[in-house]
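From the thread on structure requests for the teaching lab: each student submitted one protein with a one-line request. Submission from student K.M.:

"Model MTH1187 family thiamine-binding protein from Streptomyces beijiangensis, tokens only."
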Amino acid sequence: MIVAFSVSPLGVGEDVGEYVADAVRVVRESGLPNRTDAMFTSIEGEWDEVMDVVKRAVAAVEARAGRVSLVLKADIRPGVTDGLTSKVDTVERYLAGPSA
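Reply posted by the TA:
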């Protein structure tokens, strides 16, 4: 499964990068395949391990902020691995045109 999520503190002002870094650090230390972009962090693995990492990432932000917002989207597809790469590769292949 792939989970794309965004966790942000509320009530701490506009500069939230330091708080978000706390969450991303938890994800990167998990050892699961992951990617972070400007809006979301995506993580790939089995249901329980991915949800545990998301929970710990939220807790890392919550430890410094009294209120936290979590946005989560999941692609639940048993048996698929390396979806973080293969899904993007498929789109890139189509963008390259019919000769690709």
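TA comment: Residues 47-62 form the longest helix (16 residues). The chain has three helices and four strands.
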